[in-house]
Amino acid sequence: MAASELYTKRARVWIPDAEEVWKSAELAKDFKNGDPSLQLMLEDGTSIEHKLDPKTKNLPYLRNPDILVGENDLTALSYLHEPAVLHNLKVRFIDSKLIYTYCGIVLVAINPYETLGIYGTDIINAYSGQNMGDMDPHIFAVAEEAYKQMARDERNQSIIVSGESGAGKTVSAKYAMRYFATVSGSTSEANVEQKVLASNPIMEAIGNAKTTRNDNSSRFGKYIEIGFDTRYRIIGANMRTYLLEKSRVVFQADEERNYHIFYQLCASSHLPEFKTLKLSSANDFLYTRQGRSPVIHGVDDTKELSATRNAFTLLGINESYQMGLFQVLAAILHLGNVEIKDKDSDSSLIPPNNRHLMAFCELVGVTYQDMAQWLCHRKLKTATETYIKTLPRLQATNARDALAKHIYAKLFNWIVEHVNKALITNIKQHSFIGVLDIYGFETFEINSFEQFCINYANEKLQQQFNMHVFKLEQEEYMKEQIPWTLIDFYDNQPCINLIEAKMGILDLLDEECKMPKGSDDSWAQKLYNTHLKTCSLFEKPRMSNRAFIIQHFADKVEYQCEGFLEKNKDTVNEDQINVLKASKFDLLVELFQDEEKATSPTGQVPGTGGRTRLSIKPDKGRGKTSKEHKKTVGCQFRNSLQMLMDTLNATTPHYVRCIKPNDFKLAFSFDPKRAVQQLRACGVLETIRISAAGFPSRWTYQEFFSRYRVLMKQKDVLSDKKLTCRNVLEKLVQDQDKYQFGKTKIFFRAGQVAYLEKLRADKLRVACIRIQKTIRCWLARKKYLRTRSAAITIQRFTRGYQARCLAKFMRRTQAATIIQKYQRMYMERKRYRQKQAAALVMQTILRAYMARQKYQGLLREHNAVIIQKRVRGWLARCWYKRCLVSLVYLQCCFRRMKARRELKKLKIEARSVEHFKKLNKGMENKIMQLQRRIDEQSKDNRSINEKLVSLETSSTAERERMRGELSRLRGVEEDAKNKGNQVTSLLEQLEKLKKELSSTQKEKKTIEDWAQTYRDEMEKMVSELKDQNCSLKKEKDDLNRLIQEQSQQMTEKMARAIVEKTQQLETDLNEERSRYQNLLTEHLRLEEKYDDLKEAMNVSKPGHRRTDSTHSSNESEYTYNSEYAELEEGSRAAEDVTRGMDTSLTLKLQKRLTELEQEKQSLRNELENREDQFQRARARDDVEFKKARGAELEYESLKRQELESENKKLKHDLAEIRRSLLGNAATGAGAPGSPAYKVVLEQLNASCEELEVRKEEVLILRSQLVSQKEAMHHKETMTEPSAYVEDVSKLKDAGELKQAYIGLKDTNRSPRFMRKPLEVSDLLSRLRSAAPDFHKLNEDGELWLVNQGLKETIRLLEHQLQAQRRGYDSEVESLRGELQNVKEENNRQQQLLAQNLQLPPEARIEASLQHEITRLTNENLELLAEDPTASREARVIILRRMVDLMEQLEKQDRTIRKLKKQLKVYSKRIGEMGAGQTEGQTSPGQVVDEPIHPVNIPRREKDFQGMLEYKKEDELKLVKNLILELKPRGVAVNLIPGLPAYILFMCLRHADYVNDDQKVRTLLTSTINSIKKILKKRGDDFETVSFWLSNTCRFLHCLKQYSGDEAFMRHNTQRQNEHTLSNFDLAEYRQVISDLAIQIYQQLIKCMENILQPMIVSGMLEHETIQGVSGVKPTGLRKRTSSIADEGTYTLDSILRQLSAFHSTMCQHGTDPELIKQVVKQQFYIIGAVTLNNLLLRKDMCSWSKGMQIRYNVSQLEEWLRDKGLMICGAKETLEPLIQAAQLLQVKKKTDEDAEAICSMCLALTTAQIVKVLNLYTPVNEFEERVSVAFIRTIQTRLRDRCESPQLLMDTKMIYPVTFPFNPSSLALETIQIPSSLNLSFLTRV
Question: Whole-angstrom Cα distance, residue 993 to residue 873?
Answer without folding.
Answer: 54
